[in-house]
């Protein structure tokens, strides 16, 4: 069969070759073998290939989702984890040992940094950060650097990284390049095809798409897969068949949903950039964004995320009073579902330099599937209240 892409691929990945249109939910902990010989043979084979043997090792439903994500990411194989953070934590432990150093983009998801401080340091693993606002990331590497961990676009302000350039340096130095691809959701951005060794996606977000499931997925090149599989088994990482089914179902409409999220977000980003109360809009698909050129080169689409910096002279109290009166935007920590959300950004956790200029209040928006004009009207009420006082 010829290779499919986009919506066509999403209707076919992770499906049975015959029979059911959707992979059924398979539940079970104990797998029964035909004989002791069959049991012994399976235990040997499962060290090198995927075999049904025990519920903690997966089943037909979870395997179907692994295969689907591997196909979309262009990777060798994938492993599923109960949350996105679990996927990140196990990945770090899978590829790093005492004495190793991991260099992390300062634009990475905040809990990654907390994991390094609270857990990784206790295992004798060194970590440090590089600024995504500078181009000296290679100079930040150490003789014992074994992993470069990036998120592109970066968390909160959507900093784009030159992944092919990073991959070239990492390959020369035998360093694993690991990329958080939650923003790209396997479809809009594909780190493995740009040279990364490991791609991590929080399936909680757009892959599930309906704000009803928690999950993380790690996809790798063949050369480095054995380590993440071994760590997954050793840390007892497993997801339920019901959750795998929900993400598989979400994949079927992923392309269509992302198109709607992206169209609405870009329209609103352009409109917000023209408002007097707004100083800066961060959205890589928006012309003028610092990462726009890399986004055009490396991405095939966008999503519903954007961040807004309000004019510095507007007080926090006024802005938050207006936020509390929004009607269509919920206040929530996640994103990637059908609903629109807002959440304040702590400037100390972003790549804005407080020393450079006085910065205004930062607000992250997730533009959902509501009517764009109704979302604009809701935001316009917020902006009007800031401009008229």
TrEMBL record:
<comment type="similarity">
    <text>Belongs to the trans-sulfuration enzymes family.</text>
</comment>
<dbReference type="InterPro" id="IPR015421">
    <property type="entry name" value="PyrdxlP-dep_Trfase_major"/>
</dbReference>
<dbReference type="InterPro" id="IPR015422">
    <property type="entry name" value="PyrdxlP-dep_Trfase_small"/>
</dbReference>
<dbReference type="GO" id="GO:0047804">
    <property type="term" value="F:cysteine-S-conjugate beta-lyase activity"/>
</dbReference>
<dbReference type="InterPro" id="IPR015424">
    <property type="entry name" value="PyrdxlP-dep_Trfase"/>
</dbReference>
<keyword id="KW-0663">Pyridoxal phosphate</keyword>
<dbReference type="InterPro" id="IPR000277">
    <property type="entry name" value="Cys/Met-Metab_PyrdxlP-dep_enz"/>
</dbReference>
<feature type="modified residue" description="N6-(pyridoxal phosphate)lysine">
    <location>
        <position position="205"/>
    </location>
</feature>
<dbReference type="InterPro" id="IPR054542">
    <property type="entry name" value="Cys_met_metab_PP"/>
</dbReference>
<comment type="pathway">
    <text>Amino-acid biosynthesis; L-methionine biosynthesis via de novo pathway; L-homocysteine from L-cystathionine: step 1/1.</text>
</comment>
<dbReference type="GO" id="GO:0019346">
    <property type="term" value="P:transsulfuration"/>
</dbReference>
<dbReference type="GO" id="GO:0030170">
    <property type="term" value="F:pyridoxal phosphate binding"/>
</dbReference>
<dbReference type="GO" id="GO:0019450">
    <property type="term" value="P:L-cysteine catabolic process to pyruvate"/>
</dbReference>
<protein>
    <submittedName>
        <fullName>Cystathionine beta-lyase</fullName>
    </submittedName>
</protein>
<dbReference type="Pfam" id="PF01053">
    <property type="entry name" value="Cys_Met_Meta_PP"/>
</dbReference>
<dbReference type="InterPro" id="IPR006233">
    <property type="entry name" value="Cys_b_lyase_bac"/>
</dbReference>
<keyword id="KW-0456">Lyase</keyword>
């Amino acid at each position: 069969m010829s290779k499919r892409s986009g919506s066509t691929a999403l209707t076919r990945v992770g499906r049975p070759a015959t029979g059911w249109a959707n992979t059924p939910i398979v539940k079970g902990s104990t797998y029964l073998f035909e004989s002791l010989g069959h049991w012994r043979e399976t235990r040997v084979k499962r060290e090198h290939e995927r075999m049904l043997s025990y519920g903690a090792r997966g089943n037909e439903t979870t395997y179907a989702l692994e295969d689907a994500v591997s196909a979309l990411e262009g990777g060798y194989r994938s492993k599923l984890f109960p949350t996105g953070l679990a996927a990140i934590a196990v990945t770090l432990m899978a590829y790093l040992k005492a004495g190793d150093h991991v260099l992390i983009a300062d634009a990475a998801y905040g809990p990654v940094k907390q994991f390094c401080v609270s857990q990784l340091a206790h295992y004798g693993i060194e970590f440090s950060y590089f600024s995504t606002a500078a181009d000296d990331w290679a100079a930040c590497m150490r003789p014992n650097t074994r992993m470069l961990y990036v998120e592109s676009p970066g968390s909160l302000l959507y900093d784009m990284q030159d992944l092919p350039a990073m991959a070239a340096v990492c390959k020369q130095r035998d360093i694993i390049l690991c990329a958080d691809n939650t923003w790209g959701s396997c479809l809009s951005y594909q780190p493995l095809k740009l040279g990364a060794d490991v791609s991590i996606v929080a399936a909680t977000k757009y892959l599930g798409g309906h704000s009803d499931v928690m999950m993380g997925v790690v996809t790798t090149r063949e050369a480095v897969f054995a380590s993440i599989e071994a760590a997954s088994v050793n840390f007892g990482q497993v997801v339920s068949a019901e959750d795998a089914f929900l993400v598989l179902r979400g994949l079927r409409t992923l392309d269509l949903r992302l198109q709607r999220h992206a169209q609405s977000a870009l329209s609103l980003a352009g409109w917000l950039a023209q408002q007097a109360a707004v100083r800066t809009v961060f959205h890589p698909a928006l012309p003028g964004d610092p990462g726009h050129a890399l986004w055009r080169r490396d991405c095939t689409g966008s999503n519903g995320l954007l961040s807004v910096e309000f004019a510095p002279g507007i007080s926090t109290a006024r802005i938050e009073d207006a936020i509390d009166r929004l009607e269509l935007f919920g206040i929530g920590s996640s994103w990637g579902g059908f609903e629109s959300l807002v959440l304040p950004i702590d400037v100390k956790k972003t790549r804005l330099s407080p020393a450079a200029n006085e910065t205004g209040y930062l607000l992250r928006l997730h533009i959902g599937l509501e009517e764009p004009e109704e979302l604009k009207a809701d935001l316009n009420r917020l902006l009007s209240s800031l401009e008229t006082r």
